[in-house]
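anyone seen this seq b4? input:
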Amino acid sequence: MNISIFQILVVLLLIIEKISSIPPTPPVDEEEHTNGRLQHYIMRFDIIAKSFKEEYLPELGKLKSLFEATLAKDSMKEKLLLLDTYNDNLSNDFADYLQTELDKQYINEDILIHRWYVQEILPQLNDHLAKEAQIFLDKIQEAHKIPGLDEKFELYTKAAESISEDLWDYLNENPEPPPVLNAHLKFFQEYIGYLLQQCVVATFENELRSLLKEVEAALSGNDNAEKLRVVDFFDEVSRKFGSFLNEKVIEFEIYKFGE
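predicted toks r here
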């Protein structure tokens, strides 16, 4: 089997589809969706500020304050305008540096999601597959440590090329093998736990608590059919609840994997 780098990159997205995102649904509330986008930027600004060039910190602080002030307003027009044009009003040097830092954050976040996933399934693999998974894990961790954007992306791409045919076939099994299902379930368990700590989930609290019980029962049990049923249930929630899960998962990913 001749595996192309494009195919490998595609499968890297597919194998974490269920743990890194809920199946997309149209936003029920456009304002909620827009507010979420603003909040995500604010969270990302806080993260990159920890290692930002000191000379640009004042501009980053002003930009964050602008996003916070706009988030607090009622005007959807102002919110959408800021999201579409904020980069236009920045100095060229700062805009370029900011975009590079955001791009590095996106890649690092993706790397850490994959690292978490591999670390979850690794102890449950046979010796051969565990060795193959460890090779991939070592390579993405090397990419994670690289400070430069271009080199980081290049190493991450090479890590994808290191996936063996055996590991590729294992990750593409249908139905998914128990270690993969358990990884999905553990992600959902942590995600729902995070949501229940937020003060904005009152509308869905009963649904979340009920879903959490099912996830925990499936995770602790040995019934693979039940594990699959619970994992697939996330594809079948109501449109409003599904939209809520879809909106908030990005926030959770930034919270858990952002750096």
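Residues 28-90 form one domain. The first helix runs from residue 5 to 14. kinda curious what u guys think
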